[in-house]
Every structure is written in structure tokens, then in C-alpha cells.
Specification:
The complex is a heterodimer. By secondary structure, chain A is mostly helical. Chain A has 14 helices and two strands, in the order ααββαααααααααααα. In chain A, strand 1 and strand 2 form a beta hairpin. By secondary structure, chain B is mainly α. Chain B folds into two domains: 125 residues, no CATH class; 235 residues, Orthogonal Bundle (MetI-like fold). Classes of the chains: A mainly alpha, B mainly alpha.
Chain lengths: 316, 420
């Protein structure tokens, strides 16, 4: 049957430049983005101001000119100096006081580093072995233990806090670095085990079977077959643990003991310390220094970070 | 075709038991373990360092775990014997404590615990070597840390807290049974009333606003927009921060003398007032604002993952049927996302119950005690000489988390079992 050819639309679909719905979507996204960015912006510009500018200026505008500033040092002497934009950061790192101790936040930065590195290594080592055992070598009640582990991770820490204090006291490690590492390993285990178990379960089972046929045992398969393959999930786990342990406050304040206080605890002490003049700019600089490591990790590896929380949160 | 016909002999074929170690090695291992045990008992070195409680708990761990992993005994009678030794030792200790030393002297009870714990650990290790090999041995050994953590850190510590919340423990954790006295006291003090009300406000408002904000962000992010990565980075970065950092940042913005109020006034709006943080009725809402700021990015990420998981066919079908977008979301997409929604809800709400750092940093419970939350109450009493009171508050928090967990347990375990 022949007839006139059907008229069909041709050419690219016309696009309206200003679709009201699109404008609405972008307006919503940009306004919320500004709301999310606002506190960071305020803190950054505040940390570069001098005290006069904080007293007289407002939180929206950065300070452009720096004058002479007078402060009192802990001994009570009046000090005059030319203000510079980096002064608050210098004071926060080297000089800020809590009580009578004026060493800045840098010792506690190193404490946080010393706490974080072994905690991350130990907790991931335990979790990767456990996750691998659960995924590939199940035994009686292994799923039951895993379920209790996951449900247990929802117990408020305050419930377990005091028994854990007693436990670490009995082990003779209370208020030392070992206690913090121990506690972070215990409470990091559920989420990390979940992460590794799900990852190993998603690998093709033929891989495991082939290694078995070739005569590899439990540890050899883990170390020589699975570990080299788990680099992506290891990255996720490291990011998750580093940010988690770095940001922790409760375990640091309870288990670390005074000389080992991590950065978050020190930061809080800087704010609550009522000695001398309150230096808001220095406090804000210390706040940013405390948040710097997790933020840097986040901005450098955002994709893995998102994967980590998604994988950890939604049981796959 | 080589059928040995063994399975048809009436019972399943069991391979003959061939010990992993030769007889001399077995005896040598048992001898070494026994020597170490005798040395430990004779020198009293471990007990003078760590007391008798730790070894007994270690022994208890082994005793319990043997049921799971079939190590070292597969025969029931031996397992029962091991449990019997543990129970007898515990009974002796308890009798001594309960009778104040009249029935069993404390020294005797101590030495019973010493011998029992060393005997149990050495016996189980020795039998472990003797009865090797085991099925799936390495996996079971690798799971021992998890089993200990589950048994002692999660189950044991929770039970300990619940038990001692019925005691009159003050500075030292000594168990004197007083029934529910701590709970009566708890619900008669003002500060706890403020604390649990604040906890509920934060739980409801914080969870609701986080989920609503996060859901809207995810829906708008799902409209095939440009620069999606940039927006996601912006919404999620607060989640990478410590609650301590978030708290102090927002405290600065809320501060009437230096923050938003002063700045807006300086820009010309003289009557602008925003002093929630200094207002004892409103301070907890400041915590909610900061908490939502930090937490809604997480909800957005989870929801976005859920939205991306929905089949495109659904969208095409609803477009063909001429259903407007908002109705598709409301009546098709949200019901389909119920598991994600419930998981998100449980994660956010369980975090809201244990909220602590944020309040410490933002208001420190102030002004006065008006924004105290339950976790602060627990912490305050635990470390200031009224342990029983702190533990009873902790138990109430545990109960609240358990209630929140119910829908999640239902989805994860009951529902998924039904579907299989």
C-alpha cells in the first residue's frame, strides 16, 4: 500500500532556554547549597580577622585591612603588635592556652595522628579477616554472631561506656593509647565487617573455588588472592575509619587520658577555658584546623566517601 | 564408576578420624601446656597482676564459644563437664560473697577461681591440640575476636549496665540490690525530665527535618542536573566534620553578641532578634538546626542511591499514563523505597538518641540546664560518683534505641525471610 509518507518529527528536540521548572530546580539547589556553605564561609573569614574587626565588623564580610592590636598574654602583660592575617592560625597552632598550658593545638594534632594510625590499622586488620571468614568460610552460628554484631552497633555508646571503662581498667590499659585503640577496634568492627563481608560476597565465587582447587588455604587465599583485589574497599574503609576516629570525642575524653587527648577534646577545652581574653578568631582557626584532615580527605576522595557511607548504611 | 556404596549402609559416611599430630607431639604439647599452667599457679604471677576476674572471663569465653565452633570437644559429655566446672567455681565464689565468707571463705573462693580458670583454659587448649584437626578451623580462629566482642562488649556490657542499674553503686561499682529505686529517683529529678524531653524533641524534629530535607535534596538532585558532583560535595561535606567542630561553628553563628543577630542589625535591620541560644526554651532548637545541617547530607546520599535504584521503566510507564511527577513520587516511588526509607530512619534516629558531642560543643547543656540531653545526664552521673543513677538513665536510652530498631529488624529479618 502506497500513500503519503507519515509525517514524523525530525531534527533535534527544541530546547527552551528558560524552562520555569528547570529554573525552580536550580534555584532550590543553589539556595540550599548556599545555606550549607554559609557556616564554612563564616568560620573561614572569622579565623582571618583580628579581634577588633570581630568586635566592630559583621560575620558576612571578610577583613581587608589589618591594624595594630593590643592583647594581654597569660602573664598579664599588655602586648602590642601589628596584626597579620595569619596570626590567629599561628596562635591556634602554637600558642593557644587551655588553663595554664599554652602549647597550642599542635601536640593534640600529633596525639590524634598517633591514635588514628594504629586504630585504623588494627580495626581494619581484624575486620577484613572477620568479613572474609563470614563471607567465604561460614560455620554454625556465624550469621547469628554477625546479626548480633550489627544490631549491637545501634546500642548507644553510653550504655557500654562504663563496663568498657572497667574492662580496660582490669586489663591495665585504661587511660593509655592502647585503650583508645582497643575501643575503636571494638566499635569500628560492625560497620567494617559489614563492608568487607558484602564486598567479598560480591566477588565471583569461582575465584575462591579456583584458589581452593589449587590448594590454597584460608590465610593464603586471603593474603594472596582477596587482599590484592580489595584495594577499592580498603580505600573506603580507611577513609571511613580515619574520619570516624579523627572526629571522635567521647572515647577520646574517656579512655585516652590527659596527655593523650585527641584534637577534638583539646578544641572543646579551648572553647570552655575561661582564662584571659576570649580570642574568637583563634578559636575559629583551631576549629578549622581540627576539621582540616577529614575535610581534606573528603574533598580529595569524595567518591569513595559516598560509596563508604552508602555501602555501610544500606545492607547490600 | 566407582561407587563405594558407603552411603547406603544405613548411616552417612564419616571419614575415619586421623589426628593432625602424632602421638609424641600430642603428649609434648599437653605437657608444655600443663607446665605453663602449673608455673602460673605456683608463681601467682598472672593473678597478682590482673586479679582472678579476667582469667575467669577468658575461660567463660572459651566455654561458650566451644558450642559454636565444635572446638575442642565434639562429644557432649565433655562440653557439659567443662560447663560444670565453670558453674561450680562461680557458685563457690557467689556463696562466699553472699554469705559474707561464712560458708566459703573468701580466700578459698579466690583460689577456686584461680584453679578453675587456669584448669579450664589449659584443659581446653590441651584438648584443642589433642583433638585436632577441626573442620573450618582457621575461619573459626579468625572469628574469635568477633565472638568475644559480641559476647562481652555488646551482650555482656549491656547486661552489666542493666544489672547494675538496679544497684545502689555510687563511686565504686559495688552491687547492692535496691530494685527500681534508681529509676524512681531518675524520674523524679528535674534535670532528667528536661533531658528526656530534649532528647525527644531532638529525636523527632532532628530526624524529621533531616529526612525531609535530605529527601527533597535527593529528588532535586535526581532531575538530571548539571554539576551534580559539585552539589553533592557541598551537601555532604558537613558529614565529614566532627560534631565538636559543627557545634562550635554554629555556636559562633548563633551568638547574639557576635553572630547573625549583630551582623544583621549592623546592616540596618535594627529590630532583628535571633537569640535562641541564650533562651532556655529555644536552645534545644539550635541543636536541631545544627544537627540537621550536619545530617541531611547523609540522608540525601542514601536517598539518592535509593532513587537511582528505581527502574526507568516505572518512570516511562507513569509518563505514558500522564501521571504528574509529584504524584509519581508520592504514590509510586516513595512506597517502592520503603526499605531504604526505613534503614535511613533507623540510622538517623539511632544517631539522634545517642546525641552527645553536638550538645557539649554547641550549648554544653545551657543556658543553665535547659538543653541537657540524656547522654549528658548519663555521662555526668557515671563519672561523678553516682554510677547506679547514670546506668539507669543509660538503660532508658537502650530501651529507646530498641524501640527504634524494631522496624529495621522487621524489614531486614522478618520481611526478607518471608520473601525467600
Amino acid at each position: 500500500m502506497t500513500g503519503t509518507p507519515a509525517i514524523e518529527p525530525f531534527g533535534p528536540k527544541p530546547k527552551r532556554l528558560f524552562d520555569p521548572a528547570r529554573i525552580g530546580v536550580y534555584a532550590f539547589l543553589i539556595i540550599t547549597a548556599l545555606y550549607f556553605l554559609f557556616p564554612l564561609y563564616v568560620v573561614i573569614i572569622t579565623s582571618f580577622k583580628d579581634l577588633d574587626a570581630i568586635r566592630d565588623g559583621n560575620i558576612f564580610w571578610p577583613q581587608l585591612k589589618y591594624g595594630v592590636i593590643t592583647t594581654t598574654d597569660p602573664a598579664g602583660n599588655i602586648v602590642t603588635r601589628q596584626a597579620e592575617w595569619w596570626h590567629p592560625w599561628y596562635r591556634a597552632w602554637f600558642e593557644v592556652c587551655t588553663g595554664l598550658e599554652c602549647k597550642g593545638i599542635s601536640p593534640n594534632f600529633w596525639n590524634s595522628v598517633i591514635i588514628t594510625i594504629p586504630s585504623v590499622i588494627v580495626s581494619i586488620a581484624v575486620a577484613i579477616t572477620t568479613g572474609y571468614a563470614l563471607a567465604n568460610w561460614p560455620f554454625r552460628f556465624s550469621e547469628g554472631f554477625f546479626t548480633v554484631l550489627i544490631v549491637g552497633s545501634f546500642i548507644p555508646y553510653q550504655v557500654l561506656l562504663y563496663p568498657m571503662v572497667l574492662l580496660t581498667k582490669n586489663m591495665g590499659i585504661y587511660s593509655t593509647l592502647s585503650a583508645v585503640i582497643f575501643v575503636h577496634t571494638v566499635f569500628g568492627l560492625p560497620i567494617l565487617t559489614l563492608l568487607f563481608r558484602n564486598y567479598f560476597a560480591s566477588l565471583p565465587v569461582e575465584l575462591f573455588k579456583a584458589a581452593r582447587v589449587d590448594g590454597a588455604g584460608f590465610w593464603r587465599i586471603l593474603l594472596q588472592v582477596f587482599l590484592p583485589m580489595s584495594l577499592p574497599i580498603l580505600t573506603v574503609a580507611v577513609i571511613l575509619q580515619v574520619t570516624g576516629i579523627w572526629n571522635d570525642f567521647l572515647f577520646g575524653v574517656v579512655f585516652a587520658g590527659l596527655p593523650n587527648y585527641p584534637m577534638t577534646v583539646k578544641l572543646n577545652n579551648i572553647f570552655t577555658s575561661t582564662f584571659g581574653v576570649k580570642e574568637y578568631n583563634v578559636e575559629m582557626a583551631a576549629t578549622l584546623l581540627t576539621g582540616a584532615i577529614p575535610l581534606a580527605i573528603y574533598f580529595l576522595s569524595g567518591r569513595y566517601f559516598v560509596r563508604g557511607i552508602a555501602a555501610g548504611a544500606v545492607k547490600g | 564408576m566407582t561407587s563405594l556404596g558407603l552411603a547406603s549402609a544405613g548411616r552417612a559416611y564419616e571419614p575415619p578420624y586421623i589426628p593432625a599430630f602424632s602421638q609424641p607431639v600430642r603428649w609434648a604439647a599437653v605437657g608444655i601446656i600443663a607446665a605453663i599452667a602449673f608455673a602460673a599457679l605456683a608463681s601467682d604471677w598472672p593473678f597478682s597482676r590482673i586479679g582472678t576476674f579476667q582469667p575467669m572471663m577468658l575461660a567463660l569465653g572459651f566455654v561458650l564459644i566451644q558450642y559454636v565452633v565444635d572446638i575442642p570437644f565434639r562429644a557432649h559429655k565433655w562440653r557439659l563437664a567443662v560447663i560444670g566446672v565453670f558453674l561450680a567455681a562461680t557458685l563457690a565464689y557467689w556463696l562466699s560473697w553472699y554469705s559474707g565468707g561464712a560458708l566459703v571463705s573468701p580466700a578459698a573462693a579466690e583460689s577456686v577461681w584461680k584453679y578453675a580458670s587456669v584448669g579450664l583454659i589449659a584443659g581446653l587448649l590441651g584438648a584443642g591440640v589433642w583433638n585436632a584437626p577441626y573442620k573450618n578451623f582457621h575461619s573459626k580462629v579468625a572469628s574469635v575476636p568477633m565472638m568475644f566482642i559480641v559476647l562481652f562488649a555488646f551482650i555482656g556490657c549491656s547486661l552489666w549496665t542493666m544489672t547494675y542499674s538496679l544497684s545502689d553503686a555510687r563511686i565504686y561499682p559495688v552491687f547492692t540490690f535496691v530494685g527500681f529505686k534508681q529509676y524512681y529517683r531518675l524520674f523524679s529529678v528535674d534535670i532528667w525530665e528536661i533531658a528526656w524531653k530534649n532528647g525527644l524533641i531532638y529525636l523527632f524534629l532532628g530526624t524529621a527535618f533531616s529526612i525531609i530535607t535530605g529527601f527533597f535534596l535527593a529528588v532535586f538532585m535526581d532531575q538530571k542536573i548539571r554539576l551534580e558532583g559539585l552539589f553533592r560535595t557541598i551537601y555532604l561535606y558537613p558529614f565529614a566534620l566532627s560534631f565538636i567542630v559543627t557545634g562550635h561553628v554554629w555556636a559562633w553563628i548563633f551568638s547574639p553578641a557576635y553572630g547573625l543577630q549583630k551582623s544583621v542589625r549592623q546592616m540596618g535591620w535594627e529590630s532583628f532578634t535571633f537569640e535562641w541560644i541564650a533562651d532556655s526554651k529555644m536552645a534545644i532548637y539550635c541543636v536541631v538546626i545544627a544537627g540537621v545541617w550536619q545530617g541531611s547530607g547523609l540522608v540525601m546520599a542514601l536517598m539518592l542511591a535509593g532513587l537511582r535504584g528505581i527502574d526507568d521503566e516505572i518512570w516511562r510507564a507513569s509518563r505514558v499514563d500522564g501521571i504528574p511527577k509529584w504524584r509519581t513520587y508520592l504514590q509510586i516511588v516513595i512506597p517502592m523505597m520503603r526499605p531504604v526509607l526505613i534503614t535511613t530512619f533507623v540510622i538517623v534516629a539511632a544517631g539522634a538518641v545517642r546525641i552527645y558531642d553536638l550538645v557539649v560543643a554547641l550549648t554544653d547543656g545551657g543556658p543553665g540546664i535547659s538543653s541537657t540531653v540524656p547522654a549528658q545526664y548519663v555521662y555526668k552521673y557515671l563519672f561523678s560518683g553516682n554510677i547506679g543513677q547514670g546506668l539507669s538513665a543509660a538503660t532508658v536510652m537502650l530501651l529507646a534505641s530498641a524501640i527504634i530498631l524494631i522496624p529495621w529488624v522487621y524489614v531486614e529479618f522478618v520481611k526478607s525471610k518471608q520473601q525467600r
